[in-house]
Amino acid sequence: xxxxxxxxxxxxxxxxxxxxxxxxxxxxxxxxxxxxxxxxxxxxxxxxxxxxxxxxxxxxxxxxxxxxxxxxxxxxxxxxxxxxxxxxxxxxxxxxxxxxxxxxxxxxxxxxxxxxxxxxxxxxxxxxxxxxxxxxxxxxxxxxxxxxxxxxxxxxxxxxxxxxxxxxxxxxxxxxxxxxxxxxxxxxxxxxxxxxxxxxxxxxxxxxxxxxxxxxxxxxxxxxxxxxxxxxxxxxxxxxxxxxxxxxxxxxxxxxxxxxxxxxxxxxxxxxxxxxxxxxxxxxxxxxxxxxxxxxxxxxxxxxxxxxxxxxxxxxxxxxxxxxxxxxxxxxxxxxxxxxxxxxxxxxxxxxxxxxxxxxxx
Length: 362
Ligand code: M6R
Known about the structure:
GO terms for molecular function: carbohydrate derivative binding; glutamine-fructose-6-phosphate transaminase (isomerizing) activity. Its EC number is 2.6.1.16. This is Glutamine--fructose-6-phosphate aminotransferase [isomerizing]. It is an enzyme of class 2 (transferase). It catalyses: D-fructose 6-phosphate + L-glutamine = D-glucosamine 6-phosphate + L-glutamate. This protein is an alpha/beta fold. The protein is 45% helix and 15% strand. The chain has helices at residues 8-14, 16-28, 31-41, 52-68, 104-115, 130-133, 153-172, 178-212, 225-241, 278-286, 326-330, 332-344; strands spanning 46-50, 73-77, 93-98, 119-124, 137-140, 217-222, 244-249, 266-270, 291-297, 311-316. The strands form two sheets. The protein has a five-stranded parallel beta sheet with strand order 2-1-3-4-5, sandwiched between helices. A five-stranded parallel beta sheet has the order 7-6-8-9-10, with helices on both faces. Helix 2 (16-28) runs parallel beside helix 7 (153-172). It is globular. The two termini are 31 Å apart. The model has no long low-confidence stretch (mean pLDDT 96). The protein binds 5-amino-5-deoxy-1-O-phosphono-D-mannitol. 5-amino-5-deoxy-1-O-phosphono-D-mannitol binds next to helix 4 and helix 9.
């Protein structure tokens, strides 16, 4: 049931602090994380394969893993796997991330990887799903069932689980010591509270943002970790409001997309602690009369030396420069914005046109 909420989507958005708490508590003592970390650290190359929102969670994982474990992983959109799978080898490992565990493209991707002899680890929310059955090993997000077509709580639960995994891998390969690992895990334990504050901060900003978002198109930009959060934000807006939202790494602006900027074009800048240079992108957009909103943890300092006209700030809870916490702090604003915009425009966010919750066809 919708438990008093108008739609499943908003219910699931508000359920997120609980969902990620369940993910944390359900996995922290489970030897599966240690086993997965061992499998990963003894493999040659790590590939990540997923679609849609799960792909964005994989991108977050890839950035965190590079930072903490100094390990490069290859994120591949599931439906693109067949174009590279011939390069896979038997000492490679593929992590398939899928909320439902039933997505056709992801299932095909792991079948192709298996043919090449690679090992597969599934990260899903559904016990006994097809992807689980066809994988060598599985981890579970334990976010509870998600009914809304737009993935919300499962996204942050995937991130929680993958960040836990990243700290186990980093410890396994000794790029962090026991204290650092425990530190990260302690921060993650605290993430549900931060997420709760972030939901509240986002709610407060919605009237302003609805007014801000007056064009049929928008950019959502970020660097580093922020680019993955931006991609998820743009997908949420497209999927349920039917407004165009485009996301790309902010540094690419001057290589083409900035040509589209005109007066009052909405540009969101997702600012994370791995990407200080982003202030320049905000300024270059504002100088062309875009309306810029910088979404950032309150304690992250951005040097905006020049004219700050047209630059607004969405201050979210502080992250203390802990990269792992920033997806929980910066994602909710876009989820709630997409939801409110959809409702405002008269659409049912639970049942977006042309979409199914689980895409089991080619
Ligand atoms: O069940 P999966 O995680 O494999 O699904 C992947 C995508 O189809 C899914 O994330 C889709 O993009 C959602 N509608 C996003 O909100």
